[in-house]
Amino acid sequence: MTRFQFDYGIHGAGGFAKIFKGRDTFLERDVAVKVLRPSSGQFSDEDRERFKREARILAQLSHPNIPAIYDVEFEEDFLIIFEFIQGISLAQFIEDQGPCSLAQARSWFSQIASALQHAHSNDIIHRDIKPSNIMIKPDFETAYLIDFGIALCTADGDRITDYGWVVGTPGYMSPEQESGEQLDHRTDIFSLGVTIYEALAGRRPGLGTYDPLSLTEETIPEQIDILIQDCLLPEDQRVSSASEFSERLAGALRMRKPFSVVLAQGRLYELSLALKAEDFTADTLGRTARRTDSSPLGQTREHYLLR
User: Are residues 155 and 234 in the same domain?
Assistant: First the structure.
């Protein structure tokens, strides 16, 4: 019996391959099967090398927000069998529901930044960060970075640049990527900035312009705009790493002012953050009271805090 079986309905497609949902009959689990799609009816050497490189790249990565690779086949058909991710792309989410919430952006992009940092620590540049390459699970809590089909190991950079290849998606590529220059991990940071802007605005930032999100949506802090703009700076001034991106994203959503000051003078996003912080404090104190204070006074205080 064939171990891997898959449906003939295409589950997804990119520039170089088709994705089918399949089944591992031995381990009894769903899988995704990526089948190389020849560019001109037959496999070129470039097609073969690209497909093999993706398999090698995926095999190096082990991260909860990157689909795991299970098997490969390079005989009559070129197949990569990997973890099946049930859900929709961020691009589809934006099309169906409009911009995501700030809370969703924080959760999803923290996970994507972590996945990206893992790839970069393995000297792998994704080169195609965009909403269609981010998958959101049905619980809307977990995000995956997918499609490393044009990812580049740092060691391959000189060879690719020598050939003058420009590979990526217009509108998301960094200036150095569009120019066919040698790349490092900072090209992914540029694309990450464009992508989070689109997630929050429902559109990409304008070419050569930047319309601040915080001016049109009061729930978005100015620090988010500053972070995105710093991702879009020239390479030597750009946010230096995916870890820095994640830290600054978290910091932008951290309340720093006293609650009384925010109530009197705060902007909408500050009020929202402050109220969430107050809810968290009350819940934490209430649970502490339940554990440590069994007196009638303690019970009254717990009831007051949790009302």
Answer: yes
The catalytic site residues sit at 128
Q: Which range scores top for mean pLDDT: 95-109, 141-155, 208-222?
A: 95-109
Q: Tens of pLDDT along 64-112?
A: 999 988 887 776 667 788 888 989 999 999 999 999 999 899 999 999 9
Could you tell me the pTM of the whole model? 0.76
Q: Are residues 152 and 238 in the same domain?
A: yes
Amino acid 48: pLDDT? 73
Give the total number of structural domains in the chain.
Answer: 3
Distance, in Å, from the CA atom of 18 to the CA atom of 91, rounded to the nearest integer, reads 18
**Among 213, 231, 252, residue at a domain's last position:** 252
The boundaries of the domain holding residue 280 are 259-306
Within this chain, do residues 108 and 59 fall inside the same structural domain, yes or no?
Answer: no
